Amino acid sequence: MGRSKTAAGRETAKGGRTRGKRSLWRTLRRRVLQLLLVLILLPPVLTIVYSVVPPISTLMLARYVQFLWVDRQWVPLEEISPHLARSVITSEDSGFCSNDGVEWDALQDQVEALSEGERPRGASTITMQTAKNLFLWGERSYIRKALELPLALMLDAILSKERVLEIYLNIAEWGEGIFGAEAAAQAWFGKSAKDLSRVEAARLATALPNPLGRNPARPSAGHRRLAATNLARVRSAGPIFGCVPGN
């Protein structure tokens, strides 16, 4: 009888441990599913909020967390020089006003280049860069690029072209701790973003690929050539600026 009771006790204890493990796994699975649901819903919810509230970028947030200096002065798109908007669109995404947030032909070219062992370049639209700046991290990776696609399509579906451009021009990095067109115009040229000249706008636009290495106020010879090329392309661009106020 004693042995039976002992065996029964062991079975009970074993059953309790099994039920405890199952309960733990159910709880863990539920928490993981809840986290995934939050991660899926958070970007569209934030995008709706960002349709009326000035957002900050993940890079700005990282600097705030590290108690690093941040200069960003939000201004509406109407108070940013159309020269800058046109130069940025020409430099970064000439199809911005007409695409759905992704340049599929350019993306296909880059996928083909990757499959052939070449290093892919470009194919990142203004909307994709805005998605990256709002929701993702800065370091390049294929995972980040894959996440940019649905996020860019979501931004384009929820926000107007004018709002996407307004957000991008207000969160783009233009130097160490310098974010947005107004802060950049003040820092590099001592004037408001609405007063930028064509040349100043071209220098700012062509600094975007390397904002920490290019000085718009004192451009290198290479930077000057890029800005001159940008000016020529803006003049010959044709009707691609339909979503820019004043065009």
From TrEMBL:
Pathway: Cell wall biogenesis; peptidoglycan biosynthesis. GO terms for biological process: cell wall organization; peptidoglycan biosynthetic process; regulation of cell shape. It is found in: Cell inner membrane. Keywords: Cell inner membrane, Cell membrane, Cell shape, Cell wall biogenesis/degradation, Glycosyltransferase, Membrane, Peptidoglycan synthesis, Transferase, Transmembrane, Transmembrane helix. Its EC number is 2.4.99.28. Residues 69-225 form the Glycosyl transferase family domain. It is a single-pass membrane protein. Its main location: membrane. GO terms for cellular component: peptidoglycan-based cell wall; plasma membrane. It catalyses: [GlcNAc-(1->4)-Mur2Ac(oyl-L-Ala-gamma-D-Glu-L-Lys-D-Ala-D-Ala)](n)-di-trans,octa-cis-undecaprenyl diphosphate + beta-D-GlcNAc-(1->4)-Mur2Ac(oyl-L-Ala-gamma-D-Glu-L-Lys-D-Ala-D-Ala)-di-trans,octa-cis-undecaprenyl diphosphate = [GlcNAc-(1->4)-Mur2Ac(oyl-L-Ala-gamma-D-Glu-L-Lys-D-Ala-D-Ala)](n+1)-di-trans,octa-cis-undecaprenyl diphosphate + di-trans,octa-cis-undecaprenyl diphosphate + H(+). GO terms for molecular function: pentosyltransferase activity; peptidoglycan glycosyltransferase activity. Pfam families: Transgly. It is an enzyme of class 2 (transferase). Belongs to the glycosyltransferase 51 family. Peptidoglycan polymerase that catalyzes glycan chain elongation from lipid-linked precursors. This is Biosynthetic peptidoglycan transglycosylase. It comes from Roseibium album.
